[in-house]
Design goal:
By secondary structure, the chain is mostly helical. The protein has 24 helices and no strands. The protein has a domain at 2-191 and 204-222. Helices cover 76% and strands 0% of the residues.
């Protein structure tokens, strides 16, 4: 019952099934036909319903016969399945869904541990003083601890439990054994199992882990490296397998867009929005695609729709501001940039894009302040270093400009424009030999950078070494 309903929560979820198929195809497994996927989903649905009916029948029979199931067990069972389905079908972000269920499960686990050890303390006289102290009936902790401190402590305990219990409960909880069942308040069970056999316990334990995890993970790695098909093909198969999955169509569209197939990506994004009109990521990517096609009015429409759904998204607002800027509406663009920066003041790239906007408007001092703020948040943002260097160079602060150009070149060695700009700064200072090195490096990265080629010629003319070579 538990296994089939947990499996159904994933396989019948359009979003989670899309992620599952992406993972399987990414590990080199053969593609499944759409008919096969549909048959699997329908078969699992009928099987889950059938097993559920049988379980309810058995529950009713036990109740009538005077041996009802433990109500705590039933409540734990029902809430676990219900919350698992919510996390897989009601939560869009897969990581958020997993995290929610893990916290929920950890709370359940801690409750079981508490019940188990409370019963041990009360019934087993051999339990020592430390265990009795830990699992005594305690007063309200907040009487001596502040709520913030208590929250941090409880968060740490839940986090530690989440990391440890998957490892430990596999060999701690032998619920079939009488001693464990007694401490959980359950009757029956078998005699306690004593480990033995040909292998020592540690070797047996390691063998089980190898069979359960090491071998399957190794096979998946080999499949991913040597047998997986191209990403676009995999995403296309998933979209064909799950025609009603917005996530599947979105993933396919994103893969197409990444590979420069804009028209096909547009079609898939529209398919995504037909299934889920509020899919914000699809709206943003479609707006970006239209910007690349210079269809600014269409891009503006999709950004506005995304803002209606998620008005607190600073990234969406920043993209919308850029569209307004391209449409020649700078005042509206400024207002959107300012809102974006206020809503997410710790996002370095937002400060950088706002600074670039101000720079274009001739507000150099304000732009410098935004670039500097971006670098305070993220000192490794190469774009901010480069633009700040240019702004400082224009204001005559060549020392700091050189430092930021060099920082940008170190952080992003493939930026030919940064090398070229640094060469121009050095040439302006009369350091032609150093400028030549930078121009040559820029042209090595991008041989078509005509500005660097022209400046290199000028630098060589002013350098004594090259002048002497040119004399007869």
């Amino acid at each position: 019952m538990c296994a089939i309903w947990f499996a159904a929560g994933v396989i019948l979820s359009p979003a989670r099934m899309a992620d599952t198929l992406e993972g399987l195809y990414g590990c080199g497994l053969p593609f499944i036909s759409p008919i096969g996927v549909h048959a699997l989903q329908q078969g699992l649905l009928f099987a889950a319903v059938g097993v559920g009916i049988l379980w309810l029948g058995n529950f009713a029979r036990a109740w009538i016969s005077g041996h009802p199931q433990n109500p705590v067990k039933v409540a734990l069972f029902a809430t676990s399945i219900a919350f698992w389905w919510y996390c897989n079908n009601g939560v869009t972000n897969i990581l958020a869904g997993i995290a929610l269920f893990e916290v929920f499960h950890d709370v359940q686990y801690l409750s079981i541990v508490w019940i188990y050890n409370r019963n041990r303390v009360e019934k087993d006289s051999s339990i020592g003083g430390f265990m009795r102290f830990i699992f005594r009936r305690s007063g309200y902790l907040n009487s001596s601890l502040g709520m913030e401190t208590l929250t941090r402590i409880l968060t740490g305990l839940v986090a530690a439990s989440g990391l440890l219990h998957f490892y430990y409960d596999g060999f701690i909880w032998k619920v079939r054994e009488k001693s464990t069942r007694a401490s959980l308040g359950l009757e029956g069970g078998t005699a306690d199992v004593q480990l033995g056999g040909l292998l020592p316990s540690w070797a047996m334990h390691g063998t089980k882990w190898a069979i359960a995890f090491v071998f399957p993970l190794s096979a998946m790695w080999l499949g991913k490296v040597y047998y997986a098909g191209p990403p676009v093909e995999r995403s296309a198969r998933v979209a064909a397998d799950l025609p009603q999955s917005a996530r599947a169509h979105y993933n396919y569209a994103a893969a197409l867009q990444l590979h420069g197939r804009a028209d096909e990506a547009e079609k898939e994004y529209n398919a995504t929005l037909r299934i889920d009109p509020d899919y914000v990521k699809a709206l943003i990517n479609l707006a970006t695609l239209y910007m690349g096609k210079s269809k600014l009015d269409d891009a503006k429409k999709y950004y506005e729709r995304a803002l209606e759904i998620d008005p607190n998204s600073a990234d969406v607002r920043s993209g919308y501001a850029y569209v307004l800027e391209r449409l020649g509406r700078p005042d509206e663009a400024r207002a959107q940039y300012e809102q974006a920066v206020r809503r997410n003041s710790k996002e370095a790239r937002l400060h950088y894009t706002y600074g670039a906007f101000l720079d274009k408007r001739g507000e150099t001092d304000a732009a410098i302040a935004q670039y500097q703020r971006a670098l305070e948040i993220d000192p490794k943002l190469a774009d901010a270093h480069s633009e700040l260097a240019t702004a400082l160079f224009d204001k005559g602060d060549v020392i700091n400009a050189e430092a930021h150009y060099r920082a940008a070149a170190n952080l992003d060695p493939k930026r030919a424009d940064v090398r070229s700009n640094l060469g121009s700064l050095l040439l302006r200072q009369g350091r032609s030999s150093e400028a030549i090195v930078q121009y040559e490096e820029a042209l090595r990265i991008d041989p078509n950078l005509t500005e660097a080629a022209e400046n290199l010629r000028v630098a060589k003319q002013s350098d004594n070494r090259f002048q002497s070579r040119g004399r007869p």
